[in-house]
Design a protein that fits this description.
The chain is of the alpha/beta class. The chain contains 13 helices and 16 strands. The strands form three sheets. A seven-stranded parallel beta sheet has the order 8-7-6-9-10-11-12, sandwiched between helices. Strands 2-1-3-4-5 form a five-stranded parallel beta sheet, covered by helices on one side.
């Protein structure tokens, strides 16, 4: 049941969330705003949560975007709190920016613009200077160029499809590609099993992977050394995936022609071979609205039904309601906990109508539907089982939450 004021679910917003998403949370069941006290859930975009106390009332966190590095996910694991994100909602916006970066580099657009900005004189003088100097900015056409994509999720697949339509040859590397992603990958993409092979073969390399311990500084001195001369490297994923010192050394050695990224830094600032954008990847009206709609729907379904879709720390899990009474339980993924939970319910004659249990890493999550209401003392007893992180009793609301 809702923990917050007026018997409504309280949703605290830490950033501006597109109204088209928030309107999906009906007033009858939700109270949304940036001053909500004791919220049930938190919605945010880029706000840094690492330095803020998360209220004890919070049972879910939703990020209107893909990356969750601004959220203390490990701390939420310990409290049994799922952290949701919106993978793919901003994919088209990022794809378009990647294509922009490829075109900027291949046709030397940025240095050409800088050159034009320096011109002085009348039209005749300008014409003379342009005709004398324009060869400095001669570029390459894209057909036949080899694009290497590291990461074949939604964005990587869209970039691959667009590049193929522009006549490019595309290679892809992703050892963790899902079956669904593999099926939706354009048939023309050449799948490469070793990242070193992809880097060595590609004229242009685009990164589309999350930042994890294993991908931090994935692009390092060793990989840069394997690149062809005048490689163009694009990073619209996360800044720390690349080692900036390795990038600068690669530029100095002629291995990297341009580094194009969405993450300005003091070390790269004003370097003529670097094109850094102010984190524009998802900065379109359409992407912001897609993210807002997606995260609002996910949070609503979790709060009302306990279902989970697109969580970065919990398994995807869903169960149709056939009876009104449901408990959602998050616990450490260790043996015999499910049996203890069932025994606890059976101790007072509660009949389990339906149950689903899934795990992901160290977290297990269970939905249990019963034929009778679950007394508070049973909820308390389950909470006291060693290894249980969070228990929610969520009887069915009068409707599905929509008016």
């Amino acid at each position: 049941m809702p923990e917050s004021q007026n018997n409504k679910f309280g949703i605290l917003t830490l950033n501006a969330i597109a109204a088209v998403g928030l309107t999906r949370l009906p007033d009858g069941y939700f109270q949304v705003g940036n001053t909500i006290t004791d919220p049930d859930a938190i919605l945010l975009r880029s706000h840094n949560m690492h330095d803020m106390p998360v209220p004890r009332s919070v049972v879910a966190i939703g990020r209107a975007g893909a990356g969750t590095n601004n959220i203390p996910v490990n701390q939420m694991n310990a409290r049994g709190i799922p952290v949701f994100n919106t993978p793919g909602a901003n994919a088209n916006a990022v794809k378009e920016l990647v294509l922009t970066g490829i075109l900027l580099a291949s046709r030397n657009i940025i240095p050409a613009i800088r050159f034009v900005d320096t011109l002085q004189g009348d039209d005749a003088d300008l014409h003379q200077q342009v005709e004398t100097e324009k060869k400095r900015f001669s570029g390459l056409e894209l057909p036949g160029q080899i694009l290497g994509i590291i990461g074949l999720g939604k964005i990587g697949r869209l970039v691959a499809d667009a590049a193929i339509k522009l006549g490019m040859k595309v290679s892809g590397f992703d050892p963790k590609i899902t079956i669904d992603a593999a099926w939706s990958l354009p048939a023309e993409v050449r799948k490469v099993n070793e990242i070193e092979t992809l880097v060595h073969r590609s004229h242009i390399i685009s990164l589309h992977i999350p930042l994890t311990d294993s991908t931090r500084h994935l692009i390092n001195t060793d990989l840069v050394a394997r690149m062809q001369k005048n490689t163009v490297l694009l990073n619209f994923s996360r800044d720390e995936i690349v080692d900036e010192d390795a990038i600068l050394a690669g530029i100095e050695q002629g291995t990297i022609k341009n580094y194009i990224c969405d993450f300005p830094s003091q070390k790269l600032q004003h370097h003529p071979a670097v094109i850094a954008l102010p984190h524009l990847g998802a900065s379109t009206k359409e992407a912001e609205e897609n993210c807002a709609i997606m995260i609002a729907d996910q949070i609503m379904d979790y709060l009302i039904n306990g279902n989970i879709l697109h969580s970065v720390n919990f398994p995807d899990i869903s169960m149709e309601r056939e009876v009104p009474y449901r408990a959602a339980i998050a616990n450490a993924n260790v043996p015999n906990l499910l049996g203890q939970i069932s025994t606890c319910m059976a101790s007072i004659g509660l009949n389990i109508h339906n149950m689903v249990n899934k795990s992901r890493g160290e977290i297990a999550y269970t939905l249990v539907d019963t034929d009778k209401p679950i007394p508070q003392e049973i909820i308390n007893a389950i909470e006291n089982i060693t290894g249980v992180l969070m228990v929610r009793y969520i009887p069915k609301l009068p409707s599905d939450g929509r008016q």
